[in-house]
Structure formats: structure tokens, C-alpha cells
Amino acid sequence: MRQIFLIAWREYKQYVFSRGFLLFLIMFPLSIVFLGATLGYLENNKPLRSFVVIDETGDYIGDIDRILENRRLRNGIFVWDRYVRLYVKPTALDEGALAPPFLGDEISDARMRAFVAAGGFEAANAAAAAHLKPGAPAFSPPKPAFERIAPPAEVAGAASMEEAELRLRPYLMGERTIAVDGYEDERTLFAAVLIPAGFKPDIDGRESAAAQDEDEARAQYWSRNLTDLALYDSVSSALNSAFQRSIVRSFGVSDDKLDAIAAIRAPLDSFRPDREAEEAELSLKDRIETGLPAAMTYVLLVVIFGVGNLLLTNTIEERSNKIVEILLSSVTANQLMMGKLIGIGAVGLTMPAVFLLAGGALASLAPTDENAVEIAMAALFSSNLAAVYLFYFLCAYFIFAMIFLAIGAISNSMQDAQSYMGPVMLLVFAPTPFMLLVFQNPNGIVASVLTWIPIYTPYAVMMRAASDPPFWEIAGATVLMLIFAALFARVMGRIFRQAILQAAPPKIKDVLRLARREAA
Is pTM beyond 0.70 here? Predict the structure, then answer.
């Protein structure tokens, strides 16, 4: 036993105290923070994209402008609410220093109108100024993503939509730019919206025969960008809204009454039937607890593959450099195999352990009382999730580590191992396309099938941990997994013990022979 732990400590120390591993532990969380900050920076600094509207009816430009302004305001209030939670003193929030509409739980049309009526972001900044934490930055509302500009004179003077379309093409292709009054720089045209004179709503969700026969009866959206559909969605929403308002007006309902009707929201709360009435309502804590097993399953998958690769490269390196021969002069092949399993497994547990400690430190430094990290940490240690994760991590690790060990034992180089790694990669990541189905329906047929496949039992059970799956199913699948793991380890162990000292890598048929029987 002493030899096994000596080998395990050697393996553990070789990786955990290496510069690469320490850099990984530092760079992984930093990379997540950097990625989030970079995406946020890029989102806030997107170039202002210009578009034109050619509206022969003269009825829809105002609706398009209104929808874009509403979306910009909604996004600004969303960012403002996060700014308040982060930089306004908690005592000021508790004492009601900021009142609606500058503070609220949701962003409704009524709140948006009240926000503008109260003075907008300038008034909101003034109201919060006396209650900011020391060193808090000033709030700047997000920049608008799109601006409507006047079309070039040659386009505006086109005799038909077809002619306007032809004259717009050089601008849409970036071959020509548009001068804008009041600005020195000319603008590149991002998109164009063409609304013909015969444009009319599709009543009852069906196109009229005229609309089917006449292309000019349909609005057109032109752009080279096929991936960013934000402007397309805004234009579509504006046109739909304009149609709805025109129909409602024909029924004698004013726009003010329509806005009042649209602002109505049904108060609907979510509850759990497995709790007493006073504790049944779902909270942020419940939603985090529901999603936490899915996040842990992803971590499990990444860690298993990561430490499996460590095990593979380490075994190949020792085999090719003849180090394994020196080790086997002092220990048996079984002791070497078990030492490697324990040592690299401990490396795999070190990664999430360090991240948990970092999460705990982050939760203690969080600026608000209710934050996702703190709730996730509390959920993890106030339930059996940590124990479930540890057990199934060890099971999944043991199964896949034996595969990596066997591949390492029959390979003299990573090039030799590549022919085996393809099928192994498919095995490891095969369940990922189905994980969303398991998360959405944790007691459905897909979840049950994956649970009963021994190599995927750890992932499926982790994914279902928060949904109270049938105990008999989990217990039966776990017993089957343990039996499979024992038999599988016996087969892979045979390959490792017999192939580790062979000078030349065995062929596929030789590997099958090694797996069937132990050497004499």
C-alpha cells in the first residue's frame, strides 16, 4: 500500500506543483472574467449602424423610430438597475432613498414612460449621486445600436421601389457612403427598409391574393449582414405594431387606451407542490439550485476529460522514455496502475476544490446581500449535491481513466494514441447533445435511457439530482454502473499490465487478445 501512495503522491506533486497547473488555476477564472468584460466592452462599443427607410405610404417611419427608442430605453434601464445594485449603498436602498421609477423589479412599459417623465437618466443620476459608494463611476447609458438617417437625394427621388433598390445597392455594398447633416464623417449604410405604397396588413394571418401576386405590396429589408437580426426584428415589430394600432383604431379604441391595455400584466407566480404553502413560492435560490446540477455536470465532463489526458500523456511519456521500466523494478504493474489512478484523480478533485474556495471568497466579498455565487455556495453545501458530485466524479473518472491508461500502455507516442482517441472522444462527449433534453425533462425517456447506460450514469444522475428522480431507478443504475466499472477495470487492467513493457505497440487484434486473458 505504501508503494501505491508513493506513486500517487509523485503523480499528484508532478502536476499540482508545476508552473502549468498553477497558471491554469490562475488563468481559468481570470479568462472567464476577461471574456465577460471583453464581451461587455464590445457590446457597449459597437459601431453605430446607420439605416434608411423609404416609405411611400408615409405612415411607418414614426413607428420604427418609436420601437428603436423603446428598445434603447429598456436596455438602458436594465443597465441602470444593475448599476444601482452594484454602486448604491445598501443602506440607502433599504431606506428607500431611490424610489420608482428609478428603482424597480421589472421593466414595464408603464415604468419606462414614468422614467422618461421623471427626467430620464440625468434625473436618475442626480437622485443616486448622494448615495453612491466611494469611488463609484458615473453612470453612462448604453449607446444606441442603430440610427435612422435620411436617404441620399438620388434614392429619395427615385420614381419607383425598383429604382430606389438599384440606387441603394452601391451604398449597401459599401462602395459608397452617405453624408449626414451635422457630422463630418460620412456613414456606411448597414441596411435599408423599403415600404411600398400598396403595403397593408395580412388579416387573419393569411396573405391576400393581391399580396401574393404583387411584390410591391410587401415591405423589404435589405442588408449584407445576415447574422445580426436586431434591426430586422425591430422593423418587423414596428410594422406589426402599426398594423395592430390601425385595426384597433377602426374599432374606435384610442392609442392611449391601447397603451393602457398593452401595459396590463397578469400577476403569475411559480410554486412547488412538494413544499408547505408558506414556503412553496419559487425564489432566485430555487432557480439556482435547479440549474446548479447542470453546471456541475459540465464541470464533471471537462475535468474528466482534462485529467484523462494528463493520465494518457504521462503514461506515454514514461513508456517511451523507459521510465516505466525503472518504476516496475520496484513496484508491481498493479501498484503502478493504482498509484497513477489515485494521484491523477486527486489532481482532478483539486481543480473544482480551488474553484469552490475562490467562489466562497467571491461570495463573501459580493456587494449585495442576495447574489448568485453566495446562493450557489449555500445550495451546494446545505444539500447532498457535493457528496453526489464526489461519488459520481470518482465513478466516471475510474471508468474513463482505465481507458486512458490502457491507451497509454499500448502507445509509444501521442501519434500512436490518436487512432484510439477518436472513438474515446465520441464516447466521452456523445451525451452532450442530449443534456438539454435531460435538463428540460429530467424524468423523461431520454434521461432514463442515459441513466441506464453505465458510462453515462454519472452525467445523467448529476443532471437529474435536483428533480427527485425515482430512487429505484437511480439505485439500480448505480449498481449496474459499479458492476460494469469492476468488469471494465479488470479488462483494461489486463491490457495495461501486459502491454506496458512491450517495446512495440500491439496491433488491434493483439489488444483484443490481451483483453481476453491474463498473461501466464
Answer: no
